[in-house]
Amino acid sequence: MMACNRLLVYKELLVAIPQQKELSLIHTNLRMNRYLLFLALLFVGITATAQVNEFYSVKKDSSDFVLTVNGASHLASLPLKCILQEFPNKTSHTSVSDSDHVLLPRQLHPSFYGCFDWHSSVHGHWMLVRLLKQFPQLPEANRIREVLNATITADNIRNEVKYFSLPLTASWERNLWLGLDIKIG
Question: What burial letters (b/e) apply to 103-116, b meaning 16+ CB within 10 Å?
């Protein structure tokens, strides 16, 4: 009798195991289908919004892009955050004595002392001038004019030019300075 009961139990187990495997496969397939559906919806969502850009638009022939007012506004906000910020700063100044070793960035470069270094500050100024020329009605236009009027003065530019007459500075960033002179001048 005992052997018969064991046989019945084994038989039930043998019948139940494939059913459990089938249920497990069904659950796995359902999970996989939900996962694939999620990925498909995510892909559709990303590709649907990928073509919408508030900062620029692409020409119909894909040859170029056109900056929007929102894009220009975003770009203008970047140097406006740092152009009057003296520190942190990397001057790249080569000192020839203790008296010029203690000069602050604003003393070395009265126009272009912000945005971490002289080079970045020059690019920031150039970009603000260019954006103002392309987008005169830019929401930041008044702020840009204020910053440019504060930093680009006759005295400041005279001192910037004078910096290049100091020992060991004649060739420092010369190409950028000359390029800026040609572009703005």
Answer: eebbebbbbbbbbb
Q: How many domains does the chain have?
A: 2
Six-digit token pair at 13? Answer: 């187990």
With 0.85 as the threshold, say if the pTM is over it: no
**Residues 95 and 47 both lie in one domain:** no
Task: Give Cα separations from 23 to 15, 18, 67, 175 (angstroms).
Answer: 13, 9, 57, 73
What's the pLDDT tens digit per position in 95-123? 888 887 788 999 999 999 999 999 999 99
Q: Which two tokens stand for residue 68?
A: 């929007």
Q: Domain of 176? A: 58-184
- What number of residues does the chain have? 185
